[in-house]
Amino acid sequence: MSVNYDTLAADYVSYRVPDPRIEAAIRRHISPGDSILNVGAGQGAYEPDGFNVVALEPSREMIARRSSKKAPTIQGMAERLPFKDDSFDTALGVLTLHHWQDIQQGLSELKRVTRGKIILLTWNGDYGEFWLPDYLPEIAVIDVGLFPSIGALSELLGGAVSVETIAIPHDCTDGFMCAYWRRPEMYLDASARQAMSMFSMLGSVEEGLIQLSDDLEAGYWHKKYQSLLGKDQLDCGYRLVVCNK
Ligand SMILES: C[S@@+](CC[C@H](N)C(=O)[O-])C[C@H]1O[C@@H](n2cnc3c(N)ncnc32)[C@H](O)[C@@H]1O
Q: Which CDD domains does UniProt cross-reference here (predicted)?
């Protein structure tokens, strides 16, 4: 199932602001002076400043909306990286590999062009207490089909692989799928939904969103998911997978 990022690019600018806590978790794996390839770079979220970064991104519109301060960008795909072997110290891919046409080929390319670490933010197939699939069950079916399991991913990466839980803060600034777990009304915001690729893959969401809206108005949502309201962060299945080649 492929997503046309050219049509999502406009709402990304406002709703996909990199979250500083997720940024810090990624930065801990990057060493001073590293040269970095950011694959599926989008508009440059999580690209570390002050490093020698090259970005690679297939969508023309995502590239067009990158700030001029961001790294130089090459239009291309993970499956065919236009770089020589061992060109970079580190490769970074944030919430991108589930969109690739051929994950195995893309990872093989990342391994070819990277000397040191491959850092991937991905999802482990388990939403935990994230509740939106209760209203839109198709979400879980689609995501489970798109994301490789952490075991399969580790095997494809080979080498020494570490896996770190990235819990999502209740006020996460980056509006990806589970970001609004404690702000349910955000899923009723059409522009916020437009910045999440999942909503371009779903069939009709009307019924589920009307139910959510009704439940919020009636106070049922707050009653049913009360246990979430006192939490500051939630494990929704996001994992930082780091491979040391
Ligand atoms: C969810 S966005 C993430 C963008 C950025 N990394 C971020 O964190 O904001 C996924 C990105 O992967 C890109 N993408 C899709 N297919 C790809 C492929 N085969 N190779 C590389 N990037 C791809 C999309 O164009 C999109 O920009």
A: AdoMet_MTases
